[in-house]
Amino acid sequence: MKKIARFFVDVKKELKRVRWPKKKDMVVYSAATILSLVFFMAFFTLIDTLLGLAKVL
Question: Is the full-model pTM beyond 0.85?
Fold first, then answer.
């Protein structure tokens, strides 16, 4: 039981050392992620559509 308690104490100490990103950074990272997802979604949708049309012809 002491090992489990010690583990959580160590986790708490490590979390205090983490450099958490600022709100501005999170907005930039989130926007980049969403834009990447939209780009790849459109890209793969286009490829899928073109391959589907090629199959029909």
Answer: no
